[in-house]
Amino acid sequence: MFKRHPDNPVLTAGQWPYPPHSVFNAGATAIEGETLLLVRVEDRRGLSHLCAARSADGIGGWRIDPQPTFPADPQGHPEELYGLEDPRLTRIEETGDYVVAYTAYSEAGPLVALAKTGDFRTFDRLGVVTGPDDKDAALFPVRFGGRWAMIHRPSADNPARSAHMWISYSPDLKHWGDRRVLLRARAGGWWDAGKIGLSTPPIPTEAGWLVIYHGVKQTASNAIYRLGLALLDRDQPEKVIRRSDEWAFSPREPYEMQGDVDHVVFPCGAVVAGDELRLYYGAADACVALATASVSALLDDLTALPPYRPASTET
Predict the structure, then answer these.
(1) 224-252 pLDDT per residue, tens
(2) What is the dihedral of CA 226, 231, 236, 239, to 10 degrees?
(3) I want to staple 169 with a disulfide (CB 3.0 to 4.6 A). Which of 51, 83, 178, 251 is the partner?
(4) Prediction pTM value
(5) Half-sphere exposure of 30 (CA within 13 A, CB side)
(6) 10 domain-assigned
């Protein structure tokens, strides 16, 4: 359902103006007539920070900040002791600002933190909004009944337990509650058995909120990260109205099959222009690649499915 760009990968560590180990898992948005990617960059210590790359066409000619755009601040923010990971960008409709939901890697494990920016040059940290272990978070761009909503993925440090996608609500972006499971991982041999998590921030459509999520299947030799689709109610985002049974995108190309973590396609951002969805994804934790799809085709595929009902295969 997604078509890889022939110039993939579009960003690699070799393009960076300072020496990183790898670049991957980028948040994405359109700003000032350009595509901006806020890229997770792992340095040669093994710790990650975020760096902005800008392009007029979203494919090439990237202008990369000469230094980390959003470095970790373990002195002021001890929850960032081991770095920052996997940013997801949401433009807030009522203010025009952007909220960055990112994983802060603390001494106790990963947790979700938020920051606000208007230009991706200066950032105002809003602080930690979940405890560990929690990640794969993004905000919706609008309020629901006066409250903000956020999808995230808490999980216990126990490989035998499943990890599901949750939704939480907040009146002020600081205090979060009314938490509930949104989408459950399936059980058994399914492609999304055991662990799932949000990929890109929810995408508004006339049919509802289009959600791209990743599922992790453990095999005898490795884990495989694939992508699936779901559709949430436009006014009640905690209500899932459709969910695909089959995966929509899976690692296949050499740059997706071999890297620091093999067999991985992992998007944190997408840009929508008309009917075209541009999906920017980390490939094998080693580079950033691009795939495109038709939004209407994705919705046609989803809405042709029967209404979502949790099945016995969901854990």
Answers:
(1) 999 999 999 999 999 999 999 999 999 99
(2) -70
(3) 178
(4) 0.97
(5) 12
(6) no
